[in-house]
Amino acid sequence: MDAIRGTASGSAPVPLSVLDLATVGSGTTATAALRTSVAIARRAEARGFHRYWVAEHHSMPGVASSSPAVILAHIAAHTERIRLGSGGVMLPNHAPLVIAEQFGTLEAFAPGRVDLGLGRAPGTDGATAAALRRTERLHEGADEFPQQLAELTRFLDDDFPDGHPYARIHAVPGPVQGPAARPPIWLLGSSGFSARLAATLGLPFAFAHHFSAQNTIPALDLYRESFRPSAVLDAPYALIGVSALAADDEEEARRQVLTGALSMVRLRTGRPGLIPTPEEAAAYAFSPLEREFVDSWLGNVVHGTPDAVRSGLDDLAKRTGADELMITANAHGGDARLRSYELIADAYGLPRLG
User: Fold this and answer.
1) Second label for 231, Cα 20 to 30 Å away, from 12, 124, 253, 265?
2) Is 5 helix (H, G, I), strand (E, B) or coil?
3) Is pTM beyond 0.70 here?
4) Rg for the chain, CA atoms, rounded
5) What is the dihedral of CA 157, 41, 282, 266, to 10 degrees?
6) How far apart are CA 329 and CA 198, in angstroms?
C-alpha cells in the first residue's frame, strides 16, 4: 500500500480525509471534545476516509489539540486501518529529537499508518510561542526550519555521518533497534515557503486552504512547478485542508458554521474562548467590520445540504487540482460534526467498512 497517495472511494473525485481540531464548545469540556475526536476517527475509518490528522494549537480555550502525539496514541488504540498523523506538529516549538522519538513511538504502536506533518508557524500567539520555545527570538525558529527538518530526518533515519556531534545519539523507538518503517514526512503551509521547500525535497505537501484560501492556487502551482522527484515521491502530491459542514438542511448548516465564524472573530480580535453555541452566535450583534469578516470567512466554508457540500467539494477539487481533500468540520457540538462526516460520506456513496 502506498504510504502517501490515497485512493478515492465511492464517487469522490479524490481521497477524502479528516482534520480534527478537537474543538471545545461552550458548556462542554476538553474530556468531551477528545471523546468526540475518538468517535470521529472511528467513524472516518468505518466510512472509508483515508486519513485522520490532528493539529497542534496552544493557549486556545476552544481547542484541545495541544499535544498531537498524545492524542494520536489514544486514537491508534481505538482504530485499526485509517492513517493517523499530525496536521501538523509545529517543528520550531520542539527539539527534533523529541519529535523523532514521539513519532517513532507512534509508528511502533500503529506500524505503517502514521504520518508526520510538519509546520513552521508557532500554532499560537507570540507570547505563548516564547513560553514554548523559552526564547523571544521567534523569527529564528522559522528561519531555521530547513535545518531543523534535516536534523529531524537524520534522527528518524538514524544516519548522521561519522564525526557529527549526534552520530552516537539514537531516536528510540527507531532503526537502531532493528529494521522498521518510519512515518512519511509532509510539509504544511499557508504560503509559498513550505510549498517550495516540499518541492525541492520531493515531499508531499499539505496546504491550509481552510484559513488561507487566497494563497491556495499560487502555492500549489509553485509546488508543482518546482517539484523535484525523490526517493519518497516521483511526482507531486498535494492535499488541501477544507472547512466543510453538511447538515440535513441549509438553515441548520448555516446555524452551525456561524459558531465557528464567531469564534474566529473573537480569536482575531484577541478574545479567544470556547466555541459559542448556535444560539449565542445567532444572537451576537456583529459590527459592520465583523460582519464583513464573517461573510468573507464563510465564503470559504463549504456548507449546506449534503448535495450542496458534495458539489462545493467537487468544484474545489477541480479548481485546485488537489490530490486529496482533508475536511475539517468546525461547529460547537460533537454531534453536529459527526453528523456532517456521515452525511458527506453518504453523499459520495462511501462504503461502510464495519
Assistant:
1) 12
2) coil
3) yes
4) 20
5) -20
6) 27
